[in-house]
Design a protein that fits this description.
By secondary structure, the chain is an alpha/beta fold. 26% of the residues lie in helices and 21% in strands. The strands form two sheets. The protein has a five-stranded mixed β-barrel. It has a three-stranded mixed sheet with strand order 1-3-2. Strand 2 and strand 3 form a beta hairpin.
């Protein structure tokens, strides 16, 4: 980034499909920017603190300066040494940046809450009772939190979690499109990662859907847009019913689109907080 046309989620999903190791945000290893680490011949990509929603660059750089002396070894050690920006502690917890302590989000939040400012209900002191162990979030909760607080996940893609749902039982995946015949009717679902409606396209909208196998390109004619406007403009998780269109140009590999007949929102199944890249 900045690569305006592609979202960070799309780039990371594509990197993983190409067997590139992507390492999560970590208070002990992440800088503000993303960086390469590990073996020079096969480096891994370490995600940067810049992805954390609500975390300022100034606070992130302060954290990195404090960390230069020694890595943090516990929540208490972190809170003792990095006490100048308490308002950002929660953003770090919500982004799962304390996983290096073998703590899940719920446990990290529990332990760091003891260091928050006292409230009128009583004076809170740093937690001394380490016997309290909270139950870890289930996978879908972790995935949704990842999207909500960083805009992407390194866990299983939301569509992979939804494949067993009866609504998606007959849906094709993005990688399946190369094997499906031109003109065939299909259903396909995904997260909206991009919407485009160029002025030269006579009102046609182009939508990019992302699933666990890749991206699919959807063509939505004005009549369908009018009928499905709310789903197209406000939803994040879409199911498209339409037909496969394959165009062979100068390349050996055909350009594949799905021409939409109808578009349905299924946000109620999974409230994924993602931001699509919209162009007009």
């Amino acid at each position: 980034q900045p690569m305006g046309f592609y979202s960070p989620s799309q780039l990371i999903q594509d990197a993983k499909r190409h067997k590139i190791e992507v390492r999560p945000i970590c208070i002990n290893h992440s800088n503000w920017d993303h960086r390469l680490e590990g073996e020079p011949t096969a480096p891994a990509l370490r995600l940067g603190l810049r992805l954390i929603k609500g975390l300022s660059k100034t606070s992130a750089e302060q954290l990195c300066q404090v960390r230069e002396n020694a890595l943090f070894h516990s929540i208490d050690n972190f809170c003792t040494r990095f006490s100048t920006a308490k308002q950002h502690w929660q953003q770090l917890v919500q982004a799962d940046a304390f996983h290096c302590f073998d703590l899940h989000r719920h446990q990290s939040l529990w332990e760091i809450s003891a260091w928050q400012a006292p409230t009128p209900l009583g004076d809170l002191q740093p937690a001394q009772d380490k016997m309290i162990q909270l139950k870890a979030p289930i996978e879908i909760e972790e995935v949704l939190s990842d999207y909500r607080h960083t805009g992407l996940t390194l866990r299983r893609h939301p569509l992979a979690l939804l494949r067993s749902h009866k609504l998606f039982a007959n849906c094709a995946r993005a990688e399946d499109l190369t094997e499906i015949d031109d003109g065939r009717f299909i259903r396909i679902a995904g997260l909206i990662s991009c919407r485009q409606r160029p002025g030269s396209a006579k009102g046609v909208m182009f939508v990019t859907l992302e699933d666990e196998t890749g991206n699919s390109n959807i063509i939505v004619w004005p009549a369908v847009q009018e009928h499905c406007q709310k789903a197209l403009l406000q939803s994040r998780l879409l199911m498209v019913k339409g037909c496969v269109q394959k165009a062979v140009s100068g390349h050996a590999t055909p350009v594949i689109h799905v021409v939409a007949f109808s578009v349905e929102s299924h946000d109620h199944l999974m409230r994924v907080d993602t931001a699509s890249h919209d162009f007009h």
